[in-house]
Design brief:
Blueprint (H helix, E strand, L loop, with lengths): L3 E5 L3 H12 L3 E5 L52 H14 L6 E2 L2 E8 L3 H4 L2 E7 L3 E7 L1 E4 L6 E2 L15 E4 L13 E5 L3 H10 L5 E5 L6 E2 L9 H5 L2 H9 L2 H12 L22 E2 L3 H6 L3 E4 L2 E4 L4 E3 L4 E2 L4 E4 L3 E2 L34 E3 L4 E2 L3 H17 L7 H18 L9 E2 L1 H11 L6 H7 L1 H9 L18 H6 L1 H6 L10 H31 L1
Parallel strand pairs: 1-2, 1-7, 2-3, 7-20, 9-18, 10-11, 10-18, 11-14, 12-13, 21-22
Antiparallel strand pairs: 4-5, 5-6, 8-19, 15-16, 16-17
The chain binds NADP nicotinamide-adenine-dinucleotide phosphate.
C-alpha cells in the first residue's frame, strides 16, 4: 500500500516535500493554515497568527542561483537578488510546473500530532486538523514532514530591558514592522543586529528624524555586491573557499575572515565590529547600513541599561531623550505548537535536538522529519529540498538511520564543533556551514558530487563544481534523482545571474570583467590540478 505522508506547511519546505514524496512513490497531503502557498515569502499587510510576517521591502540576501530548487532554475529575467514578491512568483511557478496544488489543503490548521497507539510497530501518527477554524478531523498517516518555519514566534525578552513598562512611546517586535511611514520625523531605536535590524534601521532612517541601533555583540556587515560586482554568495559559497578556510589553523582563519569582512569598510570605525572575533558569526547582508551610518542617519549604540518614560539609557552612560518608538528586532523562537515536548524539545537557547537537523533520534520508528530547523550560511530552499529528499527515502525504506547511540554521539560531537566554531549567542544556535552540511546530507542519499571522478571524465565541469559557486544543481549531477539538465544549469549559471542587469549594451566592459574572473579561476584551477597530479604521483 502507498504510504501516506502528512506535510505541515506550504512554504518552500512544504512544496519541495510534496514533490519529493511523489518522486518516491509516497502519497502526500499538505496542510496549510492560511489560504495560499508561499510561507514567509507571501507578504500581507496584516500579520497572521502562526505565519512568518515580512516587511514589504524584503529582498533576499542569497542570490537566485544559490537559492533555487536543484532541478528548477529561476527564470532568466529574474534579477540576481529578489524582492519577496519574485520569490513568491518563483514558488508559484514551481508548484504549477510540478502540479503540486492538488495535494495542498488550504485553511487547514494542524492542531495536534501524536503517536498512533501502535506507533512502536507501525510508526504511524494521528493528526488532528481544523478546517476553516471549525471542522476538526483526525487522520492517521504513515509519516510526517514538518515544514512550518521558525520565524513566527517573536523572541522579545522584555525583562532584559529594565523600565520598558514605564516607556510612554510605542514599542513593537520587528515581526509587526511593515513600512517606514509610521516613523516619519520620529526618533527611533532599533534593538538587535540581525538582518531585520539592519534592514529596518536603514529603511526608516530615510524618513525618521534620527535612528539609533543598539547592539550587544556587533556584527560583520557585507554587501550583496561583492568583488567586481558579482553576487556575494556566488563568490564565497564555493568548495574551494570552504576547503581553503578549513585547511587553515583557527587563528589564521579568524584573521583571514576579519580581513575579508573589513574589506568593504573598517567595522571598528562604524561601531559594528563583533565582540568575539575568534569565532564565526553569520554576517548580516546590507548594502545601505554603512552609508547611513556614515551620513549620521543611523547611530550605533551599545547595550541598553534602562528605559525611562521618554528616554533610553545605554551601558556607556549615554542617553537618548525624547524617544518616540522602539523596534525590537530580537529574533524568533523555534516552535512546534502541534507537537509534545517529549517528541521534540526546543531549549532556552533555541536549540533543537535533531540528527543532522532533521530526525529526532529517540523515536522507535524514523517516521517524523523536520525541515529547515537550521540557519545555513546560504540559501534555505536547496537545504530543505535536500532534507526532503533524504527524509522521503527514509520513509520509503530506501535508506536508513544509524542506531540511536550513534545518532546521539553525532549530535553531541557536532554541537561541540558548532560551539567551537560559531559565536556563542542565541541567534547562532542553529548555524551551520552551507557546503559542509549540504554534502553531509547528500552523502546519505548518494548524490554528493564526486569531483575526482569529474576531473577524469569532465574536467570542465569539475572546475566549475570545485571553484565555482556551490549551486544546488551540483546535487542533481549523479545518483538517485539525477537531473539531465544539471550540467547545463551549472555551465550557464553566470549567464542567468548577470544577464538580467545587462539592460543597456555597453561595449565589452562587464563581459571582460566576467571573463577576467573566469580566467583567474581557470589559472587557479590549473595550479590545483598540477598540485593534485604531483601529490598523486608521489603517493603512487
Ligand atoms: P536574529 O538574526 O535572530 O537577530 C536577533 C538580534 O537580536 C541579535 O542579533 C541580537 O543582537 C539581538 N538580541 C537578541 N536577544 C537580545 C537581548 N536579550 N537583548 C538585546 N538584544 C538581543 O533575528 P532577525 O534579524 O529577525 O532575523 C531572523 C532571520 O530572518 C535570520 O535568519 C535572518 O537572516 C532572516 N532575515 C533575512 C532577511 C533578508 O533576507 N533580507 C531580512 C530579515 C531577516 P546582539 O547580538 O547585538 O545582542
Amino acid at each position: 500500500m502507498t504510504k501516506q505522508v502528512a506535510i505541515i506547511g506550504a512554504g518552500c519546505s512544504g512544496l519541495g516535500a510534496i514533490k519529493c514524496c511523489l518522486e518516491e512513490g509516497l502519497e502526500p497531503t499538505c496542510f496549510e493554515k492560511s489560504d495560499d502557498l508561499g510561507g514567509l515569502w507571501r507578504y500581507t499587510e496584516m500579520v497572521e497568527e502562526g505565519r512568518a510576517s515580512i516587511y514589504s521591502s524584503v529582498v533576499t540576501n542569497t542570490s537566485k542561483e544559490m537559492m533555487c530548487f536543484s532541478d528548477f532554475p529561476m527564470p532568466d529575467d529574474f534579477p540576481a537578488y529578489l524582492h519577496n514578491s519574485k520569490v513568491l512568483q518563483y514558488l508559484r511557478l514551481y508548484a504549477e510546473h510540478h502540479q503540486l496544488l492538488k495535494y495542498i489543503q488550504f485553511k487547514t490548521e494542524v492542531c495536534c500530532v501524536t503517536k498512533h497507539p501502535d506507533f512502536a510497530n507501525t510508526g504511524q501518527w494521528e493528526i488532528v486538523t481544523e478546517k476553516d477554524g471549525r471542522h476538526k478531523k483526525k487522520t492517521t498517516f504513515d509519516a510526517v514532514l514538518v515544514g512550518n518555519g521558525h520565524f513566527f514566534k517573536p523572541y522579545l525578552p522584555l525583562d532584559s530591558f529594565p523600565g520598558i513598562e514605564k516607556f510612554k512611546g510605542q514599542y513593537i517586535h520587528s515581526r509587526f514592522y511593515k513600512k517606514s511611514q509610521d516613523y516619519h520625523k520620529k526618533i527611533v531605536l532599533v534593538v538587535g543586529i540581525g538582518n531585520s535590524a539592519g534592514d529596518i534601521s536603514s529603511e526608516i532612517s530615510g524618513t525618521a528624524k534620527q535612528v539609533y541601533l543598539s547592539t550587544r555583540q556587533g556584527s560583520w556587515v557585507l554587501s550583496r555586491v561583492s568583488q567586481q560586482g558579482f553576487p556575494l554568495d556566488m563568490m564565497f559559497s564555493t568548495r574551494f573557499h570552504f576547503w581553503i578556510t578549513n585547511a587553515l589553523s583557527d587563528g589564521v582563519r579568524a584573521k583571514m575572515i576579519e580581513k575579508q569582512m573589513n574589506g568593504w569598510f573598517n567595522h571598528a570605525n562604524y561601531g559594528l565590529q563583533p565582540k568575539d572575533r575568534s569565532t564565526l558569526k553569520e554576517p548580516i547582508v546590507n548594502d545601505f547600513l554603512p552609508s547611513n551610518i556614515l551620513c549620521g542617519a543611523v547611530r550605533v549604540k551599545p547595550s541598553i541599561k534602562a528605559f525611562t518614560e521618554t528616554s533610553v539609557i545605554f551601558e556607556d552612560g549615554t542617553v537618548v531623550e525624547d524617544l518616540d518608538a522602539v523596534i525590537f528586532a530580537t529574533g524568533y523562537s523555534v516552535c512546534f505548537p502541534f507537537l509534545d515536548d517529549s517528541i521534540v524539545n526546543v531549549n532556552e537557547d533555541n536549540k533543537v535536538t535533531l540528527y543532522k537537523y532533521v530526525f529526532p533520534p529517540h523515536l522507535e520508528k524514523p517516521t517524523l522529519a523536520f525541515l529547515g530547523v537550521l540557519q545555513p550560511f546560504g540559501g534555505v530552499i536547496p537545504v530543505v529540498e535536500l532534507q526532503s529528499r533524504w527524509a522521503t527515502k527514509i520513509f520509503k525504506g530506501a535508506a536508513c538511520l544509524p542506531p540511536v547511540s550513534k545518532m546521539e554521539d553525532y549530535i553531541k560531537k557536532s554541537e561541540q564543533l558548532r560551539a567551537k566554531n560559531f559565536t556563542k549567542c542565541r541567534n547562532q544556535s542553529l548555524q551551520a556551514q552551507y557546503v559542509e552540511y549540504m554534502d553531509e546530507v547528500a552523502m546519505e542519499i548518494g548524490v554528493r558530487p564526486n569531483i575526482m571522478r569529474f576531473l577524469l571524465t569532465d574536467p570542465k565541469l569539475a572546475c566549475k563544481v570545485f571553484f565555482g559557486p556551490c549551486t544546488p544543481y551540483q546535487y542533481r549531477l549523479t545518483g538517485p534523482g539525477k537531473w539531465n539538465g544539471a550540467r547545463k544549469a551549472i555551465l550557464t549559471q553566470w549567464n542567468r545571474t548577470l544577464n538580467p542587469s545587462r539592460t543597456r549594451v555597453v561595449y565589452n566592459s562587464q563581459e571582460s570583467n566576467f571573463k577576467s574572473h573566469l580566467g583567474y579561476l581557470s589559472l587557479v584551477a590549473a595550479i590545483f590540478i598540477c598540485l593534485f597530479c604531483i601529490a598523486l604521483s608521489l603517493l603512487l
